[in-house]
Design goal:
By secondary structure, the protein is an alpha/beta fold. It is 28% helix and 25% strand. It has 12 helices and 21 strands. It binds pyridoxal-5'-phosphate (PLP).
């Protein structure tokens, strides 16, 4: 249930016709649904009912201030992976004690800013990082709360570019070395160990890798406690997948994930932290684009859109599938034909779909990429000097532009010329 549904032959975002937004803002444009964001956040929150927990939305999935504020008002914490994201969380009114700082390459400046502004915990990923954080905290006369991200060496069975829990990945420390690393953390003057962190990857469509990872984490809790560490929080990361193709088998629900957490780790007496990103924002956003040309090629027809890989890079980067639907609902049983759906950027990689069956479309028609809310707008760029794609947030029967499309003048004026030109 994602609140982008046909009504009277038109695609709606909640109670607003998508075509109305496209007419007002022009295309391409991302449109998000407040009701869907809210629903998905609550599903996670409720899935952990009965356990002390905090849901820290992984804002790298979609970090517009309006989205963050919507979630913050529901009580969401935030998982941030850069100083910029930390600043965004604070600007959205998230208190420091609900912000978790993840990422393999935190700089000293980022550590300092987070310690100054307030932080729930740093999820540290290496010994050199622990050393640096301890030094920064000591210089400031404070203690930095940490969890160590352990790499449980399980196969998340997801796309190689978003798998993070195998030993060959750059993330975390091998779980086999945890005792040694926790002992070092405990000995560093600027750190306080508060928990364990694990995140095995993204777009997981099966609970089994989680079961394996959580089981290893449970064993580690017992071992580290026996070694004298006060393990009181477990950060279980994010990664639960969404159904990108309608009609295919759906990934596990947050409720089932929550039940697994309770079953495997519920008796540890720990506060649970989870960091969902994609499942909160993914199906809460669509990318709307207009057909520019229909080009007949040799043996295949190309549907050329005004959206391109700079607006939505997932197909080019991850071979990702997005359902593409016309904004005007096709007649029941309307005939379909295969198209290669492409953008205007000068790269063959600027292909959204090959030989995709779609009902007949003409120049000027609007289409929507479904499930584009996560890792969509945040990964957009101005490649080919195509203005940064705008974003719109819908709530019930109204909508607001939450990121404007910049003018060419604004884009050009961001460059500055050296005095010799
Ligand atoms: C990316 C990331 C997440 C969110 O992953 P999703 O698949 O979007 O749920 C959570 N935690 C960490 C550490 C991440 O890097």
């Amino acid at each position: 249930m994602d609140h982008f549904l046909y009504r009277d032959g038109q695609l709606y975002a909640e109670d607003v016709p998508v075509a109305e937004i496209a007419a007002k803002v022009s295309t391409p444009v991302y449109i998000y649904s407040t009701a869907t964001l809210t629903r998905h956040f609550r599903l996670f929150d409720e899935a952990l009912d009965g356990l002390p927990h905090v849901v820290c939305y992984a804002m790298k999935a979609a970090s517009n201030q309006a989205i963050l504020k919507t979630l913050a008002q529901l009580g969401a914490g935030m998982d941030v992976v850069s100083g910029g994201e930390y600043a965004r969380a604070k600007a959205a009114g998230v208190p420091g004690d609900r912000i978790v700082f993840s990422g393999v390459g935190k700089t000293r400046a980022e550590m300092r800013a987070a310690l100054e502004g307030g932080i729930r915990q740093f999820n540290v990923e290496s010994e050199p990082e622990m050393q640096a954080l301890s030094e920064v905290a000591s210089e400031m006369g404070v203690i930095a709360p940490i969890a160590v991200r352990v790499n449980p060496d399980v196969d998340a069975k997801t796309h190689a570019k978003i798998a993070t829990g195998k030993s060959e990945n750059k993330f975390g420390i091998p779980i086999s070395r945890a005792s040694e690393v926790y002992a070092m953390a405990a000995a560093l003057p600027g750190l306080e160990v508060v928990g364990i962190d694990v995140h095995i990857g993204s777009q997981l469509t099966d609970l089994e890798p989680y079961r394996l990872a959580f089981t290893k984490v449970g064993e580690l809790v017992d071992r580290l406690r026996a070694e004298g560490h006060d393990i009181r929080r477990l950060d279980l990361g994010g990664g639960l997948g969404i159904p990108y193709t309608r009609g295919n088998e759906a990934p596990p629900l947050p409720k089932e994930y929550g039940n697994l957490v309770k079953e495997v780790l519920g008796d540890k007496g720990c506060e649970i932290e989870i960091e969902p990103g994609r499942l909160v924002a993914g199906n809460a956003g669509i990318l709307v684009s207009e057909v520019i040309y229909l080009k007949q090629g040799e043996g295949r027809d190309f549907l050329i859109l005004d959206a391109a890989m700079n607006d939505l890079i997932r197909p080019a980067m991850y071979e990702a599938h997005h359902d593409i639907v016309p904004v005007v609902e096709p007649a029941p049983g309307a005939e379909q034909a295969p198209y290669d759906v492409v953008g205007p950027v000068c790269e063959s990689g600027d292909t959204f779909a090959k030989q995709r069956n779609l009902t007949a479309l003409r120049p000027g028609d609007l289409v929507a990429f479904r499930s584009a809310g996560a890792y969509g707008a945040v990964m957009s760029s101005e490649y080919n000097t195509r203005p940064l794609v705008p974003e719109v947030l819908v709530k019930d029967d109204h909508f607001a532009v939450i990121r404007e499309r910049p003018s060419f003048e604004e884009i050009i004026n961001r460059d500055t010329l050296p005095e010799w030109l």
